[in-house]
Structure prediction request, 1483 residues.
Amino acid sequence: MSEEKLKFAFYWAASCGGCEIAVLDIDEVILDVAAAADILLWPVAMDFKYKDVEAMDDGHIDVCFFNGAIRNSEQEELAHLLRKKSKVMVAFGSCAVTGGIPGLANLSDKKGIFETVYHDNASIENPEGIVPEPSSQVKEGELTIPEFYDTVRTLDQTIEVDYYLPGCPPPTSLILTAVTAIIKGELPPKGSIIAPNKSVCDECRFEKSDKRITEIKRVYEVEKLEDKCLLEQGIICLGPATRGGCDAQCLKANMPCTGCGGPTPNSLDQGGKMISALASILGLDDEEKYNDEQVDALIDKVVDPVGTFYKYGLPSALIKRKVMKE
Amino acid sequence: MSANKTIGAVAVIGGGIAGVQSALDLGDMGFKVYLIEKAPAIGGIMAMLDKTFPTNDCSMCILSPKLVDCSRHQNIEILTLAEMKGVEGEAGNFTVKVHQKARFIDIDICTSCGDCEAVCPIKLPSEFEQGLVMRKAAYKYYAQAIPNAYLIDKEGVPGYRGCIDCDACTKACKAGAIDHSQKARDIELNVGAVILALGTHPFDPSIKKEFGYGRFKNVITSLEFERILSASGPFEGEILRPGDMEHPKKIAWVQCVGSRDRNIDQEFCSSMCCMYTAKEAVIAKEHESDIEPTVFFIDVRSFGKDFDRYIERAKTEHGIRYVRSRISEIYEKDCGDLQLRYEDMEGDLHEETYDMVVLSIGLCMTKDRSKILSDLGLEVNDFGFAYSHQKDPVALVRPGIFMAGSFMEPQAIPESVMQASAASAQVASLLKDSKGSLVEPRPEYPERDVSSEEARIGVFLCHCGINIGSKVDIPSVVEYTKGLDNVVYATENLYTCSEDTQKKLVDIIQEEKLNRVIVAACTPRTHEPHFKKSLAEAGLNPHLLEMTNIREHCSWVHSDGALATEKAKELVSMTVAKSRLLEPIPALKIDVDQTAMVIGGGVAGMTAALSLADQGFKTLLVEREARLGGALNSIHYTVEGIEVQELLKDLSSRAEEHENIDLHIRSNVSNITGYVGNYTVNIMKDGKESEHTIGAIIVASGIKEHIPTSHGYGKDERIVTQLRIEDELSETSSLTEGETFVFIQCVESREGLRNYCSRTCCMGALKNALKIKELNPRAEVYIIYRDLMTYGFWERYYKQAREKGVVFMQYDIDRKPDVEIGEKLTVKVWEPMLQEEIEISADHLVLSTGMDPADGNPELAKQLKVPLNQDGYFLEAHVKLKPVDFSTRGVFLAGSCHAPKFIGESIYQAQAAAARAATILSSPTLEAEPNIAVVDVDMCSGCRTCISLCPYNAIESVTEVIEGVEVTHADINEGLCQGCGTCVAACPSGAIHQRGFRDDQILAMIKALGACSLGGGS
Amino acid sequence: MPDFEPSVVAFLCNWCSYAGADLAGTSRLKYPPNVRSIRVMCSGRVDPVFVLDALKEGIDGILVAGCHPGDCHYQSGNYKTNRKIKLIKKLLDELGIESDRVRFEYISASEGQKFADTVTEFVFRLKELGPNPLKEECQ
Ligand code: SF4
Ligand code: SF4
Ligand code: SF4
Ligand code: FES
Prediction:
């Protein structure tokens, strides 16, 4: 480790803020971080101005941890700016890596979202039908706000990303691995995802047996949860299609995995793979006896496939958004 | 023995499903096989069927892979248009004389393009299509024919002349396959054994004048109806009546045409007509729901596995009307409709009008087949069929000659397949010393390691004469191809498959240092092996070949040349994309422990073990009881004259003494692990366990009699079961005059939970009835039955019993006979003719309760990971074509654990299982499928999604320590995986790859197509 | 778009549907040239991801064909794929992509006619639907 302290930056784009908290969740290791690195930029915790960043030399920041997806022009600009100023860019958390929950906005577009938020909503009183415009004239002059995009993008659809830390938020242990590697200068090859290759099931506490399910159930429909793989109990658990590293924490709390870790290395599309697995094992027993209507009925128990299979990953899926009809 | 060593070759006469099965078994065991077929192609009657019962499988879909296997098998030589003319010599060394007609088209050159047919001016009725449509004199027997080649008919058929030597075809055939000067030839084959599988002939119903066949256009045979149903048949699957090509609505099936008929000397049952009728009616209704099928029948002989349920569904779900009756006559009306006159069970006469009538024709022996038998000096039975002894059903009196299939007895496909394998087993025992002596080892070529080379792709585009070239602008495709990345060589050939082009291919691969080869030509389904061989010869792993079909899928189906050319380019581009990512696939060999285990020491188990032992395989025979024999122990006599106890003694003493049999009585199989070729089994005896390693397993766990609770059973000792009365009768020396026996059939059977027929109980009743009559002709016997299942040649005992005065009364399920116990037993039966209940006062009441599966089946099924059907019998891999295999490779079944059956049937099924097991045990290694799935252990999380999906139980979850860490992951057994790819698609982690069909390879094809469709491909 | 020619990829299982397409060829049946086939051993090999990827690549229609129920050469691959395709169609509906662009059919080795008819109808339907809306993105 060189004498000079490393320079870190943290930035948030379209995200909930949970990733910021996750940084603090590394507990006392934060002290080591503080010893090893200076934090130049952290909007959630420290005051700063964009022009301060602009003033930096290119590559001045050693590592930028960028959380949040890109859904407006300000986020996009900042992404580009920080890319220029940082030696290493880390996409931090599901939103930056795969689009995250904000990515589900791709089921609609700007018009649709504004419609709901500013017009068609019981709690809204907006008789003039005002919606935010990038630029508006007021007495004091021109007022500008960032432009709201139709489509949410991931960070690497906007700028080049060096490392990925998936998770909503990324699990502390992975953050630690990443930070330790950075401090020690033992970074893996560029483009790596800092998480294990295997899926959540590898870490899951539940007893697994051969999967064959007769029916899909929502969690509340299961009277008494048995101590075995939730998928085998008919609950859609994205564990098998989701990259692990989280220590299967949700499962510890008896909640199914909803997929924040993103796809596994060999999978081109997390949701597609889960659909394949689920449809394969659903109604497996006596499958030859089902008629087509019965198969339809089985499949129909899956409500909201996008929300179920792409909760954190629509912008990075093969099909990135809903096709809006005129 | 070496002095007169046997010949390791076999002549199989007849290329129907039975012959094909024998050929494949023997070829796999390492015998040289000559498959001799009279028709221009193999496949027999099964190739003509639309679907098969009771699973409604598409007949061609399941048959065609077997036919293709036959044609590709390096130990099988197919001789078509060939007839056996005589057999000389003796077992182990025969000379078979064969006369082969000229085909006038060279099979090796013909590309099956049909150009000759297009120009041929001569039309004749198509034999394959039952004369419903015409064919040319230059023709192919049927679309999927094997050998896949045309022929020229110079002889013609009665009323139609054949080829007129106009020579139009010679000019049309660009391949030069036609040779009008070809001569018939006489061949002598030196073989060690002969299997006769000549099949039978569909009965010609024109003899039965009253049905008007041949006179009334809308009266057709069931075989014609099969062709009508077939999507590739004369009307493309549309149901039309031949008279006026209208859609018939009311269709009648008339059963037993040419069967069970004294007037025409066909006093046997053809065994399969009841079932195919139900199938045809169901499928007709599925085609067009407003069709109203009615079946006129005497008995519904649904004696096979799962048949009763099928009939029940036909009646209830599909609304097929069944009328128990006798048809007296059929008239034609002016409009072509048909008037049926029949008498029902009450004796009333009826007339009904139908749009079409299907005659459910049976099978019969033909003169030429009988002549073959007499020429060979073989005995025939009363019906002109070869004489078969129940003790060894497929053997003929002349040693070394065996038989199989409907040539033996009219029957359905699974029986034929079993007999075919049984005959193979017999041959294998006879010729065990010369196995492998006449087959050439597959040539092995050194393989070049291409792993570090960049892809160098060579593309060979085929004109196929003018078949592709006239539509697709091949030169422009070649130009296009040359522009694709990694393509270093592209060329066009007139016929890529011709022998000289093949040689050229080998040279070019070597000269150009190609490491991937693409052939853009016809279908890979027939031609791929051919090109793979060339790759191997050129020192490339054969799986570096990829084919794309620009003939069947392009030039033949599109009329616009420019668009077809465009498509051909895109297909090539997609194939190149995949080809770049191809990898060599190693030829995996699995070691095989060349020993077997048979579970169950009844007649099937002992027979299977003896057959394997006679073939030279060490075999463990495990029997629970202290005594061998199983159910045989409770049988005292048979009607056909097998001395059961003698048979039992013979089998058990041979089993006890055979040097290759390791007998374990009073033993249980306590544990089984491993997989095909490599099982470890634990056998428990008297609390002590022994461990054995074996390569294959045959299950023969037997059956037991059902103990009833109805009809007063248990309340009076005069009410007994079938087995009990046999015990009693065997100890009785005389009966009093007038002593009355009543047999009630189907007790607690063929309804409710036990909705299956036990196949043997009707004959059991007849057997005991005849015994009673033998003991005292004046004793009285009543048999009260639902449907009398005297199928096949058993029918004769039905006749005998009637002649001896046994009274038969039919009852329907909703009017079951009642029993009252008093001083005498009173049995009340509804008499339809009299329309009243009659009372029989009986001294003995015998209940035919049928059979139940053995108690141990569920546990055994679990140990072996093989399925049971809903009645608790073991479920074979395929009802029709794999009747003794389980879908798990290496495990087989035999005898009544499969379904209730007769001794003879158990014997041939056991021999069949032994033959199937021998196909695995014959070689110290087993080849794995090339396209198997492989788990990437680093990616597998052990989620176990894949495991239950595998139809072959090839996947299991294993835990091992890798680099100090305990890892649980899926593991795919190379010997069991058949390469379907279902698990690959389903693995949510993408942790499984399929060799030859990897995700990246398929995705590359999609990408290439996407690029092309956007206009960016070139 | 009057002269829009849809591109179609067909995943055909080796034993039945590919053979059915072969039979269409041997019988010289005519159908539109828009379809390109990818042979797989069993329809069970077809992964919904292939369908998504094909759509993403701008292909207008995806046909998946396997053996009839009960006929699968590997016993049961077709049942799984029937379910997989049903579920993926449901997903497409939610994504605003016409699920008619994906079609699953049982085509046996003797159904050359059915293969030709299926392709003809499918291409007709795709013409009604117009180009794959994702095509623009690819260009
Ligand atoms: S599917 Fe879910 S519950 Fe089952 S093992 Fe995987 S992570 Fe655990
Ligand atoms: S489905 Fe995939 S990840 Fe799960 S056990 Fe099988 S191979 Fe492993
Ligand atoms: S490819 Fe098919 S046969 Fe092979 S392991 Fe997978 S599911 Fe089983
Ligand atoms: S082999 Fe055709 S669908 Fe499985």
